[in-house]
Design goal:
By secondary structure, the chain is α/β, with parallel strands linked by helices. Helices cover 39% and strands 13% of the residues. The protein contains 21 helices and 17 strands. Strand 2 and strand 3 form a beta hairpin. Helix 11 crosses helix 13 and helix 14 packs across helix 19. It is globular and about 85 Å long.
Length: 526
Amino acid sequence: MSLSKINRSAATLTKNRTVDSVVPNSGMCATCVDGCIGMCEIGKSAYRGHEVIYPQPFGIITTAGTKEYPVDLSHFSIMGTFMGAHGIEGDSDKAIFSNVSLEREICPNNPLKVKLPFVIPGLGSTNIAKVNWDGLAIGSAIAGFCLTIGENVAAMDPESELKNDRVVNAPDLNRRVKLYKDWQEKGVGDIILQANVEDTRLKVQEYAIEKLGVETVELKWGQGAKNIGGEVKLKTLERAQMLYKRGYIVLPDPTNPTVIEAFKRGAFTEFERHSRVGMPDEASFVKRVEELRKAGAKRVFLKTGAYRPADLARTLKWASKAKIDMLTVDGAGGGTGMSPWRMMNEWGVPGVELWSLLYKYTDILKKKGEYIPSLAIASGFTFEDQIFKGLALGAPYFHMIGMARSMLAAAMVGKTIGKSIDEYKVPVYIERFGTTKEDIFITAADLKKKYGADFDKIPTGALGVYTYAERLAQGLKQIMAGSRKFKLEFITRDDIAALTKDAAERSGITYIMDVDKREAEDILNS
């Protein structure tokens, strides 16, 4: 059985002609007929070439790989108990799920309080992030968890001003920071600014620290969706030339007269902007962390992707030496931007395996007495059961769960509902709840009571994010109460069990038929 779906995908707007008869290893139709117009990925590549590398239509979608990995979080089950209570008095009138606390303090060097153990990883210069930023920023701020501004935002903004190859004004970045800070509860959550090679060269993080009051910054070595730099599509020649001038790799070369002529006559309609891949080494990484702290950063994070195990070990070791505040490790397959589709499906270490290695390596360093930063994991988390399993898989070292696509989906749905309300075109599926945001969004009454007249300033995209987070919070509290864990720090690895011996071997989590084996025998033989 093939784990991959080759040569046809909704992501590339391609499909096979013979749906029920496909060669597993190639993905081609069993009978490839002369005269076919080329509906499959091979056929489309025959006339659109490199355009078909990327998911489409770009700018209005998020994307994730469809490869079926041998093990995922569904191969683990949560272990409940009726014995005792951890983190609360063992009293039936007190040990109820609504009393579970999801607050936690992260970052051992410079503590940061969050109301929920979530972080939205870097959402950067893609159009899908930009047009939904109001919802993401305000929603995460009022819910009390962290949001990351991704790479390339400053340099991608045509209104940004550069002087001596350094950003001196970045209106879009300014807006993104301000939106979060304006709604942030004092001392809760934070807005994080990520940087890649180009951002670092343009001193974007220094600008944000000095001019915008940003306190937490993040260096980026990769993500789970790809092992190359970020890409976006550019619709105009002027924009392509601007970004080329600002130091980006732009393909094809927008300064080449032949390319300019071809674009103007419509031979192609989009340029590609690519970021450079980082080339980190221990000394330069430690130096950059020190530079950012001297520039005024209170906290320095690092995000890395699904690279090979030795790279994960290096990352963790260097992070320990530099004493960074939080490390995010992103498993294979996810993506919010324009990642190459085959790369998204076929490269990197899958989530369960990657996170299990992260736990193992962290445990080695901890037992040696070395510094351990807060750890966050990401890749396809959407609901409370997965959040619990992710935290348990790496307990006590895993502190946060990164969620980007799901939070962005909540923001987009909220925004779309708001638009339908304004146009008096609420769909029947939603109209059964009402035709105003106060009726449709179940959290609206509480927020209106809290914010008063300012409630009307909260966009429906933010209501979507906040309401989704509220659902996750209640669901997670219920699961934790069922495991008798009333605070996050009491979650342990034996709160989950592996349903297959394969999952147990990969993760180090006990196979379900061996859970409590000795204790159960002692009970029966007592």
